[in-house]
Design brief:
elongated
């Protein structure tokens, strides 16, 4: 039986939870930017 997914996730988060999620997202973006920078350097050497 398939469910609609209506009850699996939360809609409201505490301020502290939002801050933590944003910090994790920021860290992910920083890692992505570092990877992009490394790739640019590789391509420039070719």
């Amino acid at each position: 039986m398939e469910t609609c997914g209506c009850y699996g996730t939360r809609s409201f988060f505490t301020k502290d939870e939002k801050i933590e999620m944003l910090k994790e997202y920021k860290g992910s973006l920083e890692k992505e930017a570092k990877g992009v920078g490394e790739r640019i350097k590789q391509l420039e050497k070719e």
